[in-house]
Amino acid sequence: MPFTVTDVAATEILDSRGNPTVAVTVTLGDGSQARAGVPSGASTGSREAVELRDGDRSRFGGKGVLTAVGNVNGEIADAVRGRAFGDPAELDGALIDLDGTPTKSRLGANAIIGVSMAAVRALATASGRPLWQVLSGLDTAPRLPVPHFNVVNGGVHAPNALDFQEFMIAPLGAPNLTEAVRAGAEVYATLRGLLAGQGHATGLGDEGGFAPMIDRPEDVLRVLVEAIDAAGYRPGPEGVAIALDPAASEFFDGGKYRVAGETLSSDDMIDRYETLVTDFPVWSLEDGLAEGDWEGWVRLCDRLGDRLQIVGDDLLVTNPAIIAEAVERGAGNSALIKLNQIGTVTETLAAMAVCRGAGWTQMISHRSGETEDSFIADLAVGSGCGQIKSGAPARGERVAKYNRLIEIEAAEDLPYGLAK
């Protein structure tokens, strides 16, 4: 659907961690207008598109984004204002060419993705269609995704001694999206009571999960299984399963992994994961090894790929070329998908297409620094990938995504569950 951009404007707003981020408003020729809030990650891959920060220590400790905002209001606006585009991909291509760097470091990926997201949303408004329909490609069927709720936070997302970053619950056995959200909320509430009863504080990490002073992942998994059972659900794929995101790059140093006071090799970590999968109902493992440990990833997939979804995040950074390399090497069988890791909606969809072509699964993801923007909920539905993670069933910026999915389910007769 062709469109003309008549105006682009950005402002500096706050994300869910209280740090600055970019919000972009795009106006089209017919008067349609839409806004997008750009997320920001704390646990990041080294090959992600570059989030431009001001570096002025007198403002927000150097984390201001006035430079990125100025790039939207200046150079980007000058380049696209009054210009006709055949489709969003043409606009995204123009933004990529305008920046001229492989990592969007000149104008900032946070500037570019804001324009890209807002333009697609404005186009949906102009066409009178919901956003998920505009994001649905010819080779994909829309589907309501299984939500993965991050209910215990560690790593860089929480001030505790837990090295593994995310412990998620996934209601794989729920009959529909609404019941899946209910299951997540009920297990979350039960978990709060169990942790409090064990003498743990129930403060929250960056993504809304609890941040107890526990250091061994096995101890967290035990209490998660207890909470699932106590909430009235069956632990496992027929009910509520568990997904892990250790974010291993964050505890990899000097060629070794350091977990709960132990120093482990890649093979030691794989052995530990095999034990965890045997002892607990874990169905998905994200970033189990560091982003540079390619050979370890291959061995991990060889050992556990027939039992687990092995998801690359820091390893792949939503980059179609890197995903293709991982497919060729056999380093994983699934990719985490984050819009701001690659920097445009078009490239995000291209990354997902590479996964589909290889038979890999995909999981749409939020970032630890979020806004109330629910774009990724529509992306998960339109792409038909069948999986999303947006943090705990708590905090407004997290539940905005789950509530949007509930809204879509109420309005549309769409299938729910993992992609077939």
What this model shows, in words?
The longest helix is centred in the middle third of the chain and has 21 residues, at 177-197. The protein has 13 helices and 15 strands. The strands form 3 sheets. An 8-stranded mixed beta barrel has the order 5-6-7-11-12-13-14-15, surrounded by 6 helices. Strands 3-2-1-4 form a 4-stranded antiparallel β-sheet. A 3-stranded antiparallel β-sheet has the order 8-9-10. Helix 12 links the parallel strand 14 (361-365) and strand 15. The chain has 420 residues and is of the alpha/beta class. The protein starts with a strand and ends in a 9-residue tail after the last helix. Helix 1 (66-80) crosses helix 3, helix 2 (88-99) packs antiparallel against helix 3 (109-127) and helix 5 (177-197) crosses helix 6 (217-230).
What's a quick, concise take on this entry?
This protein is α/β, with parallel strands linked by helices and 420 residues long.
